[in-house]
């Protein structure tokens, strides 16, 4: 509140009310108070009839203090200028600015002056602002007007408040051999009240398509892994998983991407008490592209399960990640369990920078169980340099016959 000459200035923060709670006091019938406590609770208008011992009542209470403001919420305030004098004032201009650590924002709905304000009349305004910065914020409210004597007066008030961080977001990246990127987002509620997580989505960059892995499909219906009521209690943490795959126009270049690449950003929407909504978008998430050296060898096709001592086909993708042309020779070395079918030491030809080659190969396994595909060697005849590739992938080898026959 501020009083200055003719005008009375009021600023109030607008927030949702809270449910009224009381502390029920009970005793046994044989105790000295008898039914006295019960009668008092039944006469209390804030209790629920028939359930007087519940702490939660049917009434709402208005905020008794300024409360907390969190990043991503909408700050709303009511501003009222009342003419407390017996004279008419003219040219009243009410201005509201919000000063943050980085900028000053004008929140006034109108920047034009009111021609006159009669006694006992007021000028009301409601301002809204989506909070996008943490730290100290200062609401600067200023009023200028002209008295009947022609004197121009001006006054202002400052209201300082802190914007707190509602969520703690941590991310982890996992790179797959198929150029897919898995993102794990850990979101922790660091406020003192529960949140209803309305939406947690990943907006990918132009290079990727995203698939959310946070639902379980049952009977053609997708159900969230967190249940139907997605509440996040104070200090609780929840993990969200996303799979990003390069778009077709970028897939061929995925093997030679180096340095830092932009993945996308998280969009988080939540609701607190009585449906107050908050929204938070992270900055662009970046990851360091894995280094593949001069040559990258990956698998485009491999079966999950194969039969013992039966040949199966795989398709290898060889990408030249260097800045020079290579002349490659392929050698296939058998291991104790994996045997290559075909000619070893064959010429693959020249491979220019950034180009790739799809190479079909045939393999068989002589040992059951989970076996690693190993033993490929690529030699660049220009530099006489050999690149070894072991544990490229794994395949499950099973016996097609009965256990006695195997």
Describe what you observe in this structure.
The protein is an all-beta fold and 406 residues long. It contains 2 helices and 34 strands. The strands form 9 sheets. Strands 5, 7, 8, 9, 11 and 12 form a 6-stranded mixed β-sheet that branches. Strands 15, 19, 21, 22 and 23 form a 5-stranded antiparallel β-sheet that branches. The protein has a 4-stranded antiparallel β-sheet with strand order 1-2-6-10, with no helix packed on it.
Summarize the helices and strands and which ones pair or pack.
Blueprint (H helix, E strand, L loop, with lengths): L1 E3 L2 E7 L4 E4 L14 H8 L12 E6 L7 E2 L3 E10 L5 E11 L4 E3 L7 E4 L4 E9 L4 E12 L5 E13 L2 E9 L5 E9 L5 E10 L3 E5 L2 E4 L2 E4 L6 E2 L4 E10 L1 H4 L8 E12 L5 E5 L3 E4 L6 E7 L3 E3 L4 E9 L5 E7 L5 E4 L4 E6 L4 E10 L3 E5 L2 E5 L4 E5 L3 E6 L8
Parallel strand pairs: 5-12, 25-34
Antiparallel strand pairs: 1-2, 2-6, 3-4, 6-10, 7-8, 7-9, 7-11, 11-12, 13-14, 14-20, 15-19, 15-21, 16-20, 17-18, 21-22, 21-23, 24-26, 26-30, 27-29, 27-32, 28-30, 31-34, 32-33
Question: Count of helical segments?
Answer: 2
Provide the number of structural domains. Answer: 4
Q: What best-fitting shape do the alpha-carbon axes yield?
A: elongated
Helix amount, in percent? under 10%
Major sheet characteristics: 6 strands, mixed
Name the beta content range: over 45%
CATH architectural designation of the largest domain? Sandwich
Mean pLDDT: 84
CATH superfamily of the largest domain: Immunoglobulins
| Radius of gyration using CA atoms only | 35 Å
Count of beta strands: 34
The CATH top-level class label of the largest domain: Mainly Beta
The third-level CATH topology of the largest domain is Immunoglobulin-like
Domain Trafficking protein particle complex subunit 13 N-terminal: 9-163
InterPro entries: TRAPPC13, TRAPPC13_C, TRAPPC13_M, TRAPPC13_N
Pfam families: TRAPPC13_C (PF23643), TRAPPC13_M (PF23647), TRAPPC13_N (PF06159)
GO cellular component, one term: TRAPPIII protein complex
């Amino acid at each position: 509140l501020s009083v200055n000459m003719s005008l009375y200035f009021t600023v109030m923060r607008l927030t949702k009310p809270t449910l009224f709670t009381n502390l029920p006091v009970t005793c046994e019938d044989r105790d000295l108070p008898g039914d006295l406590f019960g009668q008092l609770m039944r006469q209390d208008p804030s209790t629920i009839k028939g359930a007087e011992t519940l702490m939660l009542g049917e009434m709402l209470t208005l905020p008794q203090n300024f409360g907390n403001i969190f990043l991503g919420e909408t700050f709303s305030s009511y501003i009222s200028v009342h003419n407390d004098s017996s004279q008419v004032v003219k040219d009243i201009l009410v201005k509201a600015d919000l000063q943050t650590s980085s900028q000053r924002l004008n929140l006034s709905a109108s920047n034009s002056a009111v021609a006159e304000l009669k006694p006992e009349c007021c000028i009301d305004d409601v301002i809204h602002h989506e909070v996008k910065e943490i730290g100290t914020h200062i609401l600067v409210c200023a009023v200028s007007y002209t008295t009947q004597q022609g004197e121009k007066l001006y006054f202002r008030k400052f209201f300082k408040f802190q914007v707190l961080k509602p969520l703690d977001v941590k991310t982890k990246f996992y790179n797959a051999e198929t150029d897919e990127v898995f993102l794990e987002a850990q979101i922790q509620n660091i406020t003192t009240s529960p949140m209803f997580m309305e939406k947690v989505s990943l907006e990918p960059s132009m290079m990727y398509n995203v698939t959310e892995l946070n639902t379980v499909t049952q009977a053609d219906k997708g159900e969230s892994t967190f249940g139907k009521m997605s509440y996040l209690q104070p200090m609780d943490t929840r993990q969200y998983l996303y799979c990003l795959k390069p778009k077709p126009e970028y897939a061929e270049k995925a093997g030679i991407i180096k340095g830092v690449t932009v993945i996308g950003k998280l969009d988080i929407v939540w609701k607190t008490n009585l449906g107050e909504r908050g929204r938070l978008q992270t900055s662009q998430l970046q990851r360091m592209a894995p280094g593949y050296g001069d040559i990258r060898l990956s698998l485009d096709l491999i079966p999950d399960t194969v039969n013992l001592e039966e040949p199966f086909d795989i398709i290898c993708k060889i990408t030249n990640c260097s800045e020079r042309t290579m002349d490659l020779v392929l050698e296939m070395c058998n291991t104790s369990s994996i045997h290559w079918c075909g000619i070893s030491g064959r010429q693959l030809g020249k491979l220019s920078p950034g180009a790739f080659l799809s190479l079909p190969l045939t393999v068989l396994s002589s040992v059951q169980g989970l076996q690693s595909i190993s033993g490929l060697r690529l030699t660049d005849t220009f530099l006489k340099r050999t690149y070894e590739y072991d544990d490229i992938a794994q395949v499950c080898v099973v016996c097609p016959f009965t256990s006695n026959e195997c």
